[in-house]
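Morning F.,

Quick status update on the modeling queue. The single chain you submitted on Monday has been processed. Sequence for confirmation:
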Amino acid sequence: MGLFDFLSGGKGGNVKKTIAKATNKEAQSIDRFKALEALAEDRSEEALVGLLRRFNFTYDKTIEDEQEKDWVHDQLVSMATEAVQEGDSEEERARKQEMRARVLRALEPALIQSETIAWPLKILEHIASHDEAWPLIEKVIAANDNEYVRDPSRKIQLIGFLGEWHDPQASQALLQWLEDMDEGVRFKTVEALLHQKDEAVAREPLLQLALKPEEESRRIKLRILDGFVELGWNTHGYKGAIEKLCEDLGRGHGIDNKGRVKGGSSPR
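Structure tokens below.
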């Protein structure tokens, strides 16, 4: 069966049928791959949206699942980053620029509406400049605020991404999730802020969270103390309260004469 059998003309119901084949979790990997290849060959915006839907499920055969997702990632990145050459005609330059814009347009609904966003975020990082990507990331942040959700996995994926996005804007955006209702989200946020190492933004909010009476998570408090040990941040303004917290937690933390957290033996 050739590509024509999967997708003829790139319009109408044929694309929809091909997307259905490419995103059928119960199908054989080889059959899905043929459909994915047809969508990549088509290159219409509808087809690109269909390619991105492959990231929304996990196939029960791990190797094939990873291969399919890697392939889709590489195809979309290649489409969006085809370099403009000196000898390109105006028509060719316009084609390449439009292809890049098309991938970016297809990414927006995937990032805002999909249940899983780790792969689309990776694609965005690989095709867009820092300044280009941030307005779209802001939309993703707005769609995943600190309100309660039954499944916080999308928030956790976004927080992990922001933890690697070294920019004061990212650190500032992360702060809202210190107030999230889900303990796992709060813990991931603490990890991301410590990884950012932005003391001006994160030091005081983390100290406040560690001392917050409503915060019942022992592992969050210990992770904050360990992070302050690792980064050498001081506890000015909170020294006495943090010293008492160290005693209460009983994991060997203490405060030196410069107000820095020392010691600790908390397991990770």
